[in-house]
Each structure stands twice: as structure tokens, then as C-alpha cells.
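User: quick one, fold this
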Amino acid sequence: MLSVRIDRYTLHAAQLVFCIILLFISNNAMAQGRMTTTIEGVVRDSITGERLPYVAVYLIDSDKGTLTDAEGNFRISTQNDFSGIGFSILGYDTKEITVEYGKTNKLDVRMSPSGVKLNEVTVKPGKEKYSKKNNPAVTFMEELRKRKDDNNPRKLHDYYNYTKYEKISCALNDFSDKEKDKWIFKKFKFIFDYIDTSSVSGKPILNVSIKEKLSDVQYRKTPHSEKEIVKGQQQSGIDEIFNEESIKEFLQDIMREVDIYSNDITIMTNRFVSPYSPIATDFYKFYLSDTIDVDNEKCIELSFVPHNPESFGFLGRLYVPLGDSTMFVKQVKLLIPKSINLNYVQQIYITQNYKRAEDGTRIKMDDDMIVEFQILPSTQGLYARRRTSYRDHNFEPPEDMKYFGYKEKQIILPDATLQPEEFWKENREHPIKESESYTKRLLSRLREEPVFYWSEKVVVALISGYIPTRTYNSKFDFGPMNTTFSGNSLEGFRIRAGGITTANLNPRLFARTYIAYGFGDKKLKYWGELEYSFNKKKYHSREFPIHSIKGSYKYDVDQLGQHYLFTNFDNVFLALKRQKNDKLTYMRRARFEYTYEHACGFSINAGINNERQISTHFLPFIDGNGTIYNHYDETSVDVTLRYAPGEKFYQTKSNRYPINYDAPIFTLKHTYAPKRMFNNLYELNKTELSIQKRFWFSAFGYTDIILKGGKVWSTVSYPNLLLPNANLSYTIQPESFTLMNAMEFANDQYLSWDITYLANGAIFNRIPLLKYLKFREVFSFRGLYGNLSKKNNPEYNSELFVFPAIADCHSMTKTPYMELGVGIDNIFTFLRLDYVWRLTYRNAPGIDKGGLRIQLHFTF
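Assistant:
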């Protein structure tokens, strides 16, 4: 699930706005020359009248089908040709019905019990009669799971290699055939020239994005290694409006390649229970259906549905050749229940086909995933399709073994994005249709219209936070825009303006700057940064991977005890505080640093820092002897090591926002400043360590755990102590304490934890009525255990600055600080509300003992 901060609200809201613009433009577009046939109704037992759940419903002479829901209801629409509709389930005679083409057909289907005999046991599935005990379908599934590795190529062979072709297409889905002449289309009639028809659903679609990738996959059992060598990749369409690499990562993450044989299946940033999971026979109901032909081979059809259709499970079918003792699965079909607690997704269709090698090895030949989205009710939806084909399978050592020595899992060859059209014609498994090749032309045509042109400008500014100075090849972008207006107790009302240079000016040399003015303190603040990148950049300096040196100088306000990790301190969305924000000083800082990021997820940052902290009437610098200091200087060096294997993120021009948190993240930082050198008043020797990881509980949600620890080894004054990160806003902020005051505690050693469990509706999905709201449960527990030694406590050391009276700062007792939160997520699909209780130090003056906190985010 995408965990979103306040800046990410801006990011996702902007993407949503752009989708709405496209949907608004296309809302009443029509498919030309084709009629839609809709068939809906209910399936019942012909004798008892009981509704039959999970009956296979299919269009005859078509590949389209579905299952009835838990109440026996079904609905299916198509514009493709077919000869009738069929109904099939074990224990009943198969039924076929003729319907009227091009109309809406409402059916009340009655199926006759047949008492099909299998392994001497008669099974008639019904809503109340299901039992896994003595159920041959459950026995069959358990045998499949037991034998799943018998034909696994990664278990049977030391090497496994193949070529993979992948195409991801995105489109606006299912145009209406009404109201074409509305005013909105007076300037957009040309859209109808680009309308296509989905080859799967038969719905009219408007292609807006196409991506292709051709790669070689090499697997080695011992020592274990699997690499993907990308030989070609290209994309076109609206992706260029966003960050193309980030969009590619996002789509590949939400539409991951499905491994049906794993315990969990990750798609849409959620975990679904696989039919091969050890808990599958308790999570799913299994049914054996009649044998059917799959590629001219008789196969047993095993169907499965979740006991609770709101949970993260599939409606699926596995096809096993009749009489096959190896339990080889020839075909897999997966859908999702209509009532599943999944946002913005109307349906998912997954089809996989396998063949058997001469030695019996299971080989996947193709993998087809279709996702139909609907962001807003009563609008046309979005359509995404990932088609993957596999060929040239072999089990020999690859000719070039060098790629096994690379640390990254995916290696993109230098000329991958430069492949000519001839390359794609030779290697393309799924031809690009004429309508799909028009995505660039469509975007260019849309930009000729002022409505779309200026809407795009607004969306780009919201997403990136910056406004380009030119439509194409901008050399300087103004921003970030969310810091233009803000305020605090020291500056009063604050305005800020700045910007960045781009690769269009110089692909290796970049500058960033801003100026700010506070109307309360009447002071001008400023910052400038100059960076040289050893890597040639496409647009901006923050693009991954970074390998650069940079220098910067800054004069601005510094907030002690408040450090927002994923946004700027003067973000306008954080302006509203629960208490006065007055733990402020002025700061001058010159810094020179070196940064190196490796594709494997390891990075290093080393810097030299010269900093002057300037006292204010809020935070004066007075030592225990009564000496007043206007400022103090500190020159230090620091090294930060970070390791995040497999991390994926959305890249903006200033920040990175994780796409998922599945990868562990380790961070180690050490800072050192020698005493009496470079005007240093104190020696600084400080070490900090952070570890975070997401732990999944299959379809029952996940827990994010963040552990931090730190120690100051030397004697320092309070600005250099380990001040816990307090969140004074009403928003939910990561790695911060919701009810702690800024500078409430000061430590020279600490251990903290931040544990959040999001249950994905594990409880609410089982409560009648409440389950239809699709709420999700959230539980959080944060804590801090710290200590302040006498050498760093100004009560015992008169050489140190005393704690300012306004802060009421003190050391902790042996009792840890703790707070507990309980919340409801997914309110209206984008709102999370937590109520947080402060469990300890409840008698401290000026504190909040509890409070409601909010988070806006968009998640599947």
C-alpha cells in the first residue's frame, strides 16, 4: 500500500486532477459502429430455488467469462461476437442460452442438479453446504501444492534462460455512446479518430500510453542469481508529462508479474493469497468443475473463491490435463471479487499459459494482465494491459556469464533506448496496432487546444512543484511552489521564491537557489547550491543514480526538535500547528559534499559542514556561568551510509517518495567536530543508526517497523544533543512523535520505535453493513527510551548552554515516552483519521494528552 506524506498528497492529487481532465474530455466519447451486449441476472438451483455462488459464466465462441458472486449474481458486457452464453459448475448440468445481440438481457437461470461422481464422492456446491472435509476439490488442490516443485525450472536445472517481451498499454476505457454533441467536444472532435476497441473486453478505448521492453533473463541456481538484461525499451504517450522512469517503475510495481506458485501474489501494492499458499484451503472454497478443452487437450477445471469476498483473494480457475499424474497446470485464470476492498479497480483479468518441455519442466509461455480502473463514480474508467511473452527457453549456462557479477538485478544496456523500428519489428511478440502508434500524435493534437494546454501546465506544476520557463527545453524552473507562502513565530508571514537549472542548460552542472523574506523579523534569507554531476542527467540533478559533488551556502531559520523528512519545513500545508512554533534560531551554513549512489541500493554521502547558530529571543545561548553568546560556530565532517536493496520510488525534482516499503532500509551516520579547531566550542562525536522494514501478513495487512538509535560520545551543548522529532502539525507524519512538544526531551543516547499495523480491512470486512464502506483498520505504537548523562546535562556542567526556559526541556526518567494510536483508513478512499493517546509523561506542563490527526492519500 502506498503510504503517503503531506507532499505526496499534492503529488497524487495532481495526478488525479490530470486523469479527471482526460476523463472529462472523453466522458461522452462513443465507439463507432459497434453495439454493446450486456447479460446480467441470477443463477439458481432448479429444484430448491437456492442461489448458486461461483458458477462459471462464459460467452460461447469467445474468451470472455466471469463467475457468479456469493449471491449467485452475474453481469457481463462485450462488443465482440459470440454465439451464446454458458453456465457450468460441478454437480449441475451445463446450461447454454441464446441471448439478443446488442441489447441488455436479464436472465433468471435455473440449473438442474446432476450429482456428478468423482472419486466415489458426490459434490454439490452450495452457499451453506460447503465443507473442506472430505472434499475432493480440496484434496486435489493439496496435491497440486505438494507437487508444485516437481516441474519447476528453477528447481530442476542449474541454469534457466529465456527471452521476455513485455508491452504495457494504458487507455481511457469504455466510452459512452451518448451525448457526443455536448459543448465539451466542440474542440475535441478529433478524439474520435483515435478510438480503438479492446481485443479482450470489446469495449471502446482511447490509447494514451504504450511501453515496450525486450530482455534476456538469466538464472543460476548456485550461487543463486537471477538477472534481467534489457536489450530494448521504448515508451510514448502521456508519461512524458510525468517523470517517465517513475511512471514505469510504478506501473511495473502495481502490475507485477504474477507467480501463482508463491504463497502471496503482489499486485496493486497489496498482497493476495495464492491458491498455493499453506492457508489457501482455509481462505478459499474449492470446486471441481466439468472437464473442458484447453488447446485441444481435455483438462480438469479447479475453481476457487475466497470465503470472504471483501478480502484480498481471487476468483480463479486452474486447468490440469486429465489423467496427468505430475499435476501439471496448463492454464491459469484469475479475477477479483466484485466486493473486494480494493480502491479504484473495477476488475482484474489474469491469464497465464504454460507448456511442458521434453523433460517435463514447466515453461511459462505468456502472461496477460488487464486492469480496469475507475477513479470517480459515473465517469469512464482507465484501462491498463500488460502482455508478456516468453521464448527461447534453454537450460544451458549462458554464453556471457558476466552479468551474474552485477549487483543490480536489472541491467539496462547502453543502447536499449536507441533501438530502431526494425529491431522492434523483428522482436515484437504482440504487434502495435495502428491506433496504438498514434499516442504521440494524439498528445500533440491535444496540446494545440488551450484548455488542455493550460490544464497540463497546472498539473505539471502540482506534480513537480515547479513551473518551467519554457514549454519545451526549459533551462530554469521556478519553485517549489508549495513553499511560496508560510509562517512561524519568529518570521511572521513568510514568502519565498526560488528555482533550479535543468539539463537543457548543462547536463552536468546544476544550480538551485531561493530567497525568502519574513514580514515579522524583516530579514532576508537565502540559499544557493552548485552541483557537478559525474553522470549526464536527463533533466534535473536529483535523478537516480546520483554521483556528484556540490557546495551550498544557506542563511535561514532553523527549527530545533522538528525535522520533516519528506518535505520542506516551510511547506504551506504544515502552517497550521497545534501549539506555538517558537523553538527557532537563525543559521548560517556552508557545506561541501560528495554523494555516490549505486544501482544495488547502496549509497554514501560525505560532507564538510561549517555552521553558525545565531541565538534568538526564543532560544538564547547562555552557559552555566551566565556568559551570553550571540552565536556559536561549529565545523564538522559527516559520513552517511545507506543501503536499500530493491527500493522503488517516485522521483520528483526535489524529493523521492517510496512506491512501496517492501525493501529494508539501513542508514548509519557519524558526525565529528574537533574541539577548539575552526572556532569549535565543543567536540562533537555522534553516531546514529536507523533500520526500517515492512512485514506482510498475506491478505491480512502489514506492519511497518522503524527502529532508531543514537549516541553522543562527547560533551556537547543542547543544539547538538539528540532531540526527538516532534510533530506540531495536525497531519500524520512519519518517524515523528504526534503528541510530543518540540525540545521537550534532550538525550545523548536513545532508542526509538515506530510500529504501524494496517490491517487492510481484516476486521471491518467481516462486519455486516460496515464492510460495504471498505474501511481499513490502523494501529500505531511509538516510543522513545533515552538518557542524558551528567556530562551533557547543564544542571551538572556549567560550561554548557542552559536549556532555554521557553522549551521546558529536561532529561528522561527510566520510563520511556510512549503514544498509542487507533484509526480508520480508506475513508472515501483517500482519508485516514487517527486518534492518538499519550501514555506516559502525562503530567508535564503544556502537553497534549490526546488528539485527532489526519492524513490525505490515495492508495489501492
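User: anything notable?
Assistant: The first strand starts at residue 37 and ends at 45.
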